[in-house]
Amino acid sequence: MDERRTVKVSKYLSKHLRHQPERIGLTLDEGGWVEIDTLVAAAAAHGFHFTREELDHVVATNDKRRFAIEGTRIRASQGHSITVDLGLPPATPPPYLYHGTVAGALDAIRAEGLRPMNRHDVHLSADLETATRVGARRGRPVVLTIDAGAMHRDGHVFQVSANGVWLTRAVPPQYVRFAERH
Predict the structure, then answer these.
(1) What percentage of the chain has pLDDT greater than the value 90?
(2) Which residues cross the membrane (predicted)?
(3) What is the pTM of this model?
(4) What is the DSSP letter of 25?
(5) Angle separating helix axes 52-61 and 3-14, nearest 10 degrees
């Protein structure tokens, strides 16, 4: 499977497993899962054909591990704009986490902190490199350091998805600062 096809299938899966399952007639269960055969058939019925082998390739090779397969079911690991319960237990974060963004967002972040925007949670990275890649998707990246240890001590709840993305409802501005190595 060539890289362009891999990206195309991955984007299609993200759109329909994270944001618009109803667009192709899918109904995800409360945890965001759908039967793989149902997904493949729904996509084909709406003009986008892919094989189970292509699906397995996308899941196995995605560097961000965006999707999880459990038995005969698949779901997006996080990043939903639709209501799902990923069933993730609370987790104790490392002392610092990181968030990649762009300079144009800094004034709002200074005033309001990090908000989930159209998602359920704010996404944080455990390392600077990942946060830099995330920020670079929208331009020149700016990486912020999040004092996750202090947030956790102050009662903020964290979860970590199967692919290592740290999730929290919001990050108030007092816990945000420009990245520096710790």
Answers:
(1) 82
(2) none
(3) 0.79
(4) T
(5) 90
